[in-house]
Structure to design on (1636 residues):
């Protein structure tokens, strides 16, 4: 028999009620999540999500307005808005919302059975939630007032022991649990520096009280740990700002039980200005864009993408030609977000852009003239010039420079000869288009003299197992493990144990001086070749960070480093190919699909997973041919898009709907000035005709122009070390600095030659525009430049001023 | 060490009547065998009439020097007629003038026609062949004599036919150039076909072997690996179809015997053996040169010549140990990757053994050797080469931290009568180029010596200093340096190398300084060679006497940009050529214009912590003599010995060209009681003919201020009784401070009143008494002396020497005895 009096309206948070959805839409279907709920003990509670789907496919969160009607009274809705068990039995709950109904299956077990309470499953989450284990409280490095817990409770064993055995166990009163110090402090029954953390008689209070009463059991380390964290919905998609969505977090345990931990989980948004989340796990769209929710609970992490669409009416997708899968996948994302991409850039700007991106150099006037004069199909000639650039020595030089940055090629670490040899090896690898997996293999498995086997220099920079591991994971996987040296990662799943397990792969790397001055030999130590865990002092055996198909069982390959590289460079490794595909993309589009490119983590999701996945697959399908992937990217319409924006993409900065202007890098700028002026500065460390992009390390021209413009010192492998900012010293250097003024006034420079050859005014103007801005001047620019000559008198001075002006223009300083 | 040598060389140059010659270059650097040519020797102070001293089988006929260069003595031209059968190789060239002898430069004799790079010719502009477009055309076979001036790249264009094979080789460091050459072969499009930096068996020199893919122009590019700026910046690019090998085996053999030497690699596949005759090689020489058979062109290989019996590693089953005999050199080879050569060595417990492996350090092996010793149960007893060398080893190598071949000083544990010695490559490599020489020697502790000066010009009535370093192989005692068979014309002083000691900073006493003074009647004479010896006594009284090795020549090698770090990665080792087999070449030159005279005894006794004001004056020998611009001091002590020599008078007008001055010699209470040698030297900042002077050694004999000995017999004391403790005390005359001697760590209920000694007492006395409750028994206690020392600055510093241990016997009291 149905008992209709069991109908309640979910009493959700007042703010939610205060901001109803805009114009109600007709609901076509109703979905309840989860569809089946099981209660094992009396103290459990469960959120249920109710989602309506409109005729247009739009999904609307109706949880707040849903009515729940249990068929049998085995469950009820509590004051907290959660479904709670009442008595043993199986039944259904009818859910009504938006004029539609759906059904929820419930199972309630034997509620007479006393709940098994444990520190791991019940108490540690409370300590984490109320902030006891936070970095500002007892979770700080030194604890607080003599009481130290692990940061965010990453080490329950440590916390348990700290609670039980510090102060000789005086935190508990076994005879009268309610008088325990562990309860008296957070409830402020006695003075507590951290203030009131737990209300007397609250749910958390009772949890701790019951735990003490039960004899402070630790619990079962194998069974009480969260096996999986599930967040519902797995993706939040809003059709405009001010929409709301309830999210719930479910902890899955090894015994198959599921617990609603929404209230204990830590839920935050990586971009609150787009989507914010409140204490009751309601997400609110603030403005159009994309964000990610990071949900953490007991060492498990889930990221939930949130999309807030442009609510403006009138969007109509204007399909542009798609050159390859990059355009297909990016267009799909843009179309979904109601962003109209910009059309192609013109030929001259394309040539400058692709030349700078592939070779680090602006095109020469001759190259520009030839390209513009070529009357074949624009796409075909662009593709052809891309191939030409990819086959050029300058391509090798500029990518040698990039890898030199990342691998920290510097005489500071390697001495002069080591530095030159390492650079030569990188350059040779790029010239050969060595497959990326082989390139990395040769680096990480390197041993021997750093002069005879230059990739061994990799370890001359890192010098220790820990630094080798940190650099390897950040550089080749995009994963930052630095903070896990001291504690589990606060925003990721990585643990302190994993840090040392990974470091163990490098434990036997030894360094000793070579037979030549300045050389060092990388060898396998035969003694003192293990890492030890700082807490236990025990030797930590190596273990892969994540399981991966294609990885050899550890121990099956005697050499640990080779095993690691086999695992790392396997096509199935979830990080390796993905990280480099993302990094390469960032070099051409100005930002990664995941940004920063070397900080890949769940809470930093890609803006276009499908695109990144496709790029990754393309790379592995082509045996890690980086040049192939570059060619694919720069041949896409997405890469060749104009910098000009439209009303639908003007404020898009992350979805690659239009090109983003990028300041020329330090070396690009110096080489572009040298090209424009026909004059190159000289440095004592390199032959006189050496281009800036050929400089082997940051000691060439140290503390000069290049450093002002953000050349990295190569003190880390972080992409962030190369600065692309704009500063006052840069502006002053451009206006008053010697680099530009000396180049312009070089007696053997372009200007002097033009004047001495008796070149006409118009030809000078054309030549200077081509050499600096890589395009012909407009008619207006011709006229303005030529008319500027008259009052000056000296043609040479006029031409110098003109070139100076061009070199100080944004069109010159930026790659557009 | 090298820096000191350079200073001393510079010091020896300047003499009143003219400075000794100094060579900076040879033009050309080499010649084709059998050809006659003009050799221009470049340098300084090359006065007309200078005579060439060389082993080059040639005649040297002086030509008229270019007049414009005569004033500076910058060039000496000779017409050189090489004998037709001159062996290919490097030959030392030095010049002797009336003012002395010069340094050595090497001259190379080759098989091909020689040309000089255009921009290396006099007055040529720089960077004229720095690109493909401006490459200089050459035709094989040829040797190009070129130079690299800093960030320089030299391109040479050569036409080749499809399938044509040419060997390109750069000779540079092997001939004493400071260049570390890199050689590239590129095609007309700039695509690199081959590259070599350090080729097998060529040290840092380069070689590529190219078969050209098609007809056309190709380019050989030579540059320095660091683009560094060097004073010796020459190279010889050899292009031709000559025979070369990548290695030889064995790496050496016994003097006077014949041995089959195997050449492999390059043109020698399969390897080829050729007989080498080592008879008639001078006992002074540690190396000879073995020519590569076949088409002439390669420089010969250096080959060790020894005096011990030699054996070749016999063929044997894998892992089967081979017997290793004492004082026999085993010539072995790690012939394939992961191979470990095992040797069985019969030993006796307590014996001291020295095992030495020579391989990579010889320049003819690729083996980074690891040497290990295992007991019969397989337990590793010792190993070397499998970890960074000890800090103290690096201290020998001040200019560039480098590894050396491994050696082990090993004492056999008890119950061990046989050990297994293993040899392997650190990187588990192997192949024909991984040869080695293993020498096991049952021997007392030993040492070797190296002289830093490549040659000496001793001014008549003047003094020069010689710096010698010691490489200790278990011998840790003091060493006295001397010169054997030196005539009465000379006085040798100093040469004290203090005993081995370390502090927390690993400072080690391993340098010696001696001076040679020519007596007034010593006249300029012909070149002689001095053999320097070091002698020390082991703990059991055995004498160890070793002859110092001389370096032949020194080429300083500058770092690239000079950017260095704490690890010293840019400190470059100089090029030296001990294989030239020279002892220390010496001539007596003209008298100097004046003399630097220290006003101190030659043996200066200093109590730890005390100082001494050392004054000096400049004595003119002729009225125009000008005092040296600056006068400095060098001490043979390492920094941690805490001996400082500070300039005492700093008034500016006295600093330059002063006729007198003073230094304060300062010690601390931690300065070890050893002998160290000190010299004063006067020099001028500009290289000029003005006098640069060295004083004979003043030996600093550092001593303890006082000493005491414990009473010979145990002190007997009864409970409730008294006794006077008496021991011997010695005080240095210079040490006048009171000394207190206290008894520490006495048993309970026993006390001694400290003794205070004020003057020349020869014994100390402490009154001790025991309470009735003092417990009978035998006890040890300490006598701890304490005092202060007064330095030059008049400040008192606490001064303690090590306490001595004494014995005390407390017998039962009479009452106790009676009660029992």
């Amino acid at each position: 028999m149905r008992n209709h009096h069991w109908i309640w309206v979910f009493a959700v948070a007042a703010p939610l009620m205060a901001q109803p959805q805009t114009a109600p839409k007709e609901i076509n279907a109703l979905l309840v999540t989860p569809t089946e709920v099981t209660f094992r003990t009396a103290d459990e509670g469960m959120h249920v999500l109710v989602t309506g789907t409109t005729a247009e496919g739009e999904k609307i969160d109706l949880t707040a307005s849903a009515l729940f009607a249990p068929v049998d009274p085995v469950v009820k809705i509590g004051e907290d808005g959660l479904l709670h068990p009442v008595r043993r039995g199986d039944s259904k709950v009818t859910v009504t919302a938006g004029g539609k109904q759906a059904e929820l299956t419930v199972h309630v077990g034997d509620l007479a059975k006393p709940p098994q309470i444990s520190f791991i499953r019940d108490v540690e989450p409370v300590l984490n939630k109320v902030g006891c284990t936070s970095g500002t409280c007892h979770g700080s490095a030194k604890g607080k007032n003599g009481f130290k817990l692990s940061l965010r409770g990453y080490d329950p064993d440590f916390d348990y022991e700290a609670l039980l055995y510090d102060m000789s166990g005086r935190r508990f009163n076994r005879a009268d649990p309610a008088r325990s110090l562990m309860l008296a402090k957070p409830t402020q029954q006695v003075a507590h520096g951290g203030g009131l953390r737990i209300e007397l008689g609250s749910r958390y209070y009772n949890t701790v009280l019951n735990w003490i009463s039960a004899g402070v059991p630790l619990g079962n380390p194998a069974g009480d740990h969260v096996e999986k964290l599930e967040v519902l919905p797995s993706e939040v998609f809003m059709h405009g700002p001010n929409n709301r969505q309830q999210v719930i977090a479910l902890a899955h345990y090894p015994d198959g039980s599921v617990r609603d931990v929404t209230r204990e989980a830590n839920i935050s948004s990586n971009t609150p200005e787009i989507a914010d989340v409140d204490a009751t796990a309601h997400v609110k769209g603030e403005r159009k864009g994309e964000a990610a929710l990071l949900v953490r609970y007991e060492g498990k992490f889930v990221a939930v993408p949130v999309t807030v669409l442009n609510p403006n009416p009138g969007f109509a997708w204007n399909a542009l030609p798609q050159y390859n899968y990059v355009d297909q996948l990016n267009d799909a994302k843009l179309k979904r977000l109601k962003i109209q991409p910009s059309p192609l850039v013109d030929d001259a700007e394309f040539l400058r852009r692709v030349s700078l991106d592939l070779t680090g150099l602006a095109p020469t006037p001759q190259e520009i003239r030839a390209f513009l004069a070529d009357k074949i199909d624009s796409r075909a000639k662009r593709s052809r010039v891309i191939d030409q650039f990819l086959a050029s020595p300058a391509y090798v030089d500029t990518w040698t420079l990039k890898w030199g940055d990342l691998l920290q090629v510097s005489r500071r670490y390697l001495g002069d000869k080591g530095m030159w040899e390492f650079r030569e090896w990188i350059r040779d690898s790029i010239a050969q288009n060595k497959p990326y997996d082989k390139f990395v293999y040769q680096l990480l498995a390197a041993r021997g003299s750093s002069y005879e086997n230059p990739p061994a220099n990799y370890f001359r920079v890192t010098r220790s197992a820990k630094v080798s591991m940190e650099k390897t994971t950040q550089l080749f996987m995009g994963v930052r493990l630095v903070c896990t040296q001291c504690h589990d990662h606060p925003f990721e799943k990585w643990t302190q144990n994993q840090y040392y397990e990974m470091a163990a792969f490098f434990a036997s790397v030894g360094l000793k001086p070579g037979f030549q001055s300045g050389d060092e030999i990388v060898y396998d130590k035969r003694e003192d070749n293990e890492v030890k865990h700082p807490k236990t002092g025990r030797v930590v055996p190596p273990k892969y960070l994540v399981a991966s198909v294609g990885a050899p069982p550890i121990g099956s390959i005697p050499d640990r480093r080779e095993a690691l590289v086999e695992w790392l460079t396997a096509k199935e490794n979830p990080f390796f190919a993905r990280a480099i595909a993302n990094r390469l993309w960032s070099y051409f589009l100005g930002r990664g699909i995941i940004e920063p490119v070397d900080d890949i983590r769940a809470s930093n999701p890609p803006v276009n997973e499908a695109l990144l996945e496709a790029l990754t697959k393309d790379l592995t399908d082509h045996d890690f041919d980086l040049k192939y992937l570059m060619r694919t990217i720069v041949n896409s319409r997405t890469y060749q898009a104009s910098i000009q924006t439209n009303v639908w993409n003007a404020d898009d900065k992350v979805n690659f709907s239009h090109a983003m202007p990028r300041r020329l890098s330090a070396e690009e700028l110096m080489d572009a000035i040298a090209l424009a002026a026909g004059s190159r500065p000289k440095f004592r460390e390199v032959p006189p005709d050496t281009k800036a992009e050929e400089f082997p390390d940051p000691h060439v021209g140290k503390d000069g122009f290049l450093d002002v413009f953000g050349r990295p010192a190569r003190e880390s492998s972080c992409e962030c070390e190369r600065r692309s900012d704009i500063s006052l010293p840069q502006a002053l250097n451009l206006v008053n600095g010697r680099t530009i003024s000396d180049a312009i006034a070089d007696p053997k420079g372009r200007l002097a030659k033009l004047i001495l050859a008796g070149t006409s005014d118009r030809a000078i103007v054309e030549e200077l525009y081509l050499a600096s801005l890589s395009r012909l001047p407009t008619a207006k620019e011709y006229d303005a430049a030529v008319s500027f000559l008259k009052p000056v008198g000296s043609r040479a001075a006029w031409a110098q001023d003109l070139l100076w002006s061009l070199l100080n223009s944004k069109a010159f300083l930026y790659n557009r | 060490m090298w820096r000191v040598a350079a200073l001393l060389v510079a010091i020896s140059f300047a003499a009143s009547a003219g400075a000794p010659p100094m060579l900076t270059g040879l033009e050309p650097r080499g010649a084709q065998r059998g050809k006659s040519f003009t050799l221009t020797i470049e340098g300084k102070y090359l006065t007309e009439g200078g005579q060439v001293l060389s082993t080059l089988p040639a005649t040297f006929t002086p030509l008229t020097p270019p007049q414009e260069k005569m004033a500076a003595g910058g060039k000496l031209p000779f017409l050189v007629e090489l004998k037709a059968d001159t062996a290919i190789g490097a030959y030392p060239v030095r010049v002797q003038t009336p003012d002395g002898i010069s340094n050595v430069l090497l001259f190379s004799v080759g098989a091909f026609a020689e040309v000089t790079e255009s921009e290396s010719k006099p007055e040529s502009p720089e960077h004229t062949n720095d690109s493909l477009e401006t490459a200089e055309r050459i035709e094989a076979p040829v040797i190009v004599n070129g130079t690299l001036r800093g960030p320089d790249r030299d391109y040479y264009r050569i036409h080749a036919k499809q399938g044509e094979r040419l060997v390109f080789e750069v000779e540079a460091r092997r001939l004493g150039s400071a260049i570390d050459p890199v050689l590239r072969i590129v095609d007309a499009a700039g695509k690199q076909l081959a590259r070599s930096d350090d080729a097998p068996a060529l040290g840092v020199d380069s070689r590529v072997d190219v078969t050209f893919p098609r007809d056309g122009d190709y380019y050989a590019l030579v540059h320095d690996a660091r683009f560094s700026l060097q004073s010796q910046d020459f190279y010889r690019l050899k292009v031709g179809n000559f025979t070369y090998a990548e290695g030889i085996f064995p790496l050496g053999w016994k003097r006077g015997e014949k041995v089959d030497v195997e050449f492999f690699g390059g043109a020698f596949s399969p390897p080829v053996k050729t007989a080498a005759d080592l008879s008639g090689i001078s006992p002074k020489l540690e190396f000879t040169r073995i020519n590569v058979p076949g088409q002439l062109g390669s420089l010969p290989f250096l080959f060790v010549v020894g005096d011990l019996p030699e054996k070749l590693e016999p063929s044997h089953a894998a892992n089967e140990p081979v017997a290793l005999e004492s004082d026999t050199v085993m010539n072995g080879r790690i012939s394939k990757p992961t191979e470990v050569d095992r040797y069985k060595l019969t030993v006796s417990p307590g014996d001291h053994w020295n095992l030495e492996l020579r391989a990579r350090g010889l320049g003819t092996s690729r083996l980074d050797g690891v040497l290990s010793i295992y007991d019969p149960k397989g337990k590793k007893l010792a190993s070397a080469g499998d970890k960074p060398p000890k800090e103290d080893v690096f201290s020998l190598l001040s200019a560039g931290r480098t590894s050396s071949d491994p050696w082990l000083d090993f004492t056999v544990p008890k119950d061990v009568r046989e050990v297994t010695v293993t040899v392997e490559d650190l990187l588990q490599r192997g192949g024909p180029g991984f040869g080695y020489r293993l020498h096991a020697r049952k021997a007392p502790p030993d040492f070797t010596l190296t002289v830093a000066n490549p040659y000496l010009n001793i001014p008549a009535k003047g003094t020069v200093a010689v710096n010698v370093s010691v490489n200790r192989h278990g011998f840790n005692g003091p060493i006295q340096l001397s010169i054997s068979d030196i005539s009465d014309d000379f006085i040798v002083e100093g040469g004290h190398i203090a005993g081995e000691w370390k502090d927390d900073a690993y400072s080690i006493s391993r340098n010696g300084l001696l001076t040679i003074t020519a007596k007034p009647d010593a006249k300029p004479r012909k070149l002689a060679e001095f053999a320097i010896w070091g002698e020390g006594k082991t703990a059991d009284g055995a004498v160890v006497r070793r002859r110092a090795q001389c370096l032949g020549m020194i080429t300083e090698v500058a770092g690239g940009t000079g950017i260095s770090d704490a690890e010293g990665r840019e400190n470059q080792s100089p090029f030296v050529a001990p294989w030239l087999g020279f002892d220390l070449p010496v001539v007596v030159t003209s008298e100097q214009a004046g003399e630097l005279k220290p006003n101190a005894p030659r043996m200066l006794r200093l109590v730890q912590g005390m100082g001494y004001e050392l004054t000096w004056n400049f004595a003119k020998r002729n009225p125009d003599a000008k005092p040296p611009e600056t006068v400095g001091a060098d001490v043979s002590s390492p920094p941690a010995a805490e001996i400082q020599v500070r300039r005492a008078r700093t008034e500016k007008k006295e600093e330059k060209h002063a006729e007198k001055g003073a230094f304060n010699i300062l010690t601390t209470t931690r300065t070890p009681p050893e002998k160290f040698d000190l010299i004063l030297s006067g020099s001028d900042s500009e290289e000029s003919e003005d006098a640069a002077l060295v004083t004979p050694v003043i030996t600093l004999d550092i001593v303890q201020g006082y000493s005491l000995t414990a009473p010979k017999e145990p002190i007997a004391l009864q409970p409730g009784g008294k006794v006077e403790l008496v021991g011997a005390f010695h005080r240095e005359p210079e040490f006048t401070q009171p000394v207190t001697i206290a008894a520490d760590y006495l048993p309970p209920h026993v006390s001694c009143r400290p003794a205070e000694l004020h003057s020349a007492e020869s014994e100390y006395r402490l009154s001790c008494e025991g309470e009735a409750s003092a417990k009978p028994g035998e006890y040890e206690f300490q006598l701890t002396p304490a005092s202060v020392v007064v330095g030059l600055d008049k400040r008192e510093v606490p001064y303690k020497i090590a306490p001595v241990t004494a014995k005390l016997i407390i017998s039962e009291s009479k009452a106790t005895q009676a009660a029992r």
User: Anything to note?
Assistant: The longest strand of chain A covers residues 89-97. DSSP finds 28 helices and 25 strands in chain A. The two ends of chain A are 72 Å apart (CA to CA). Residues 411-431 of chain A form the longest helix (21 residues).
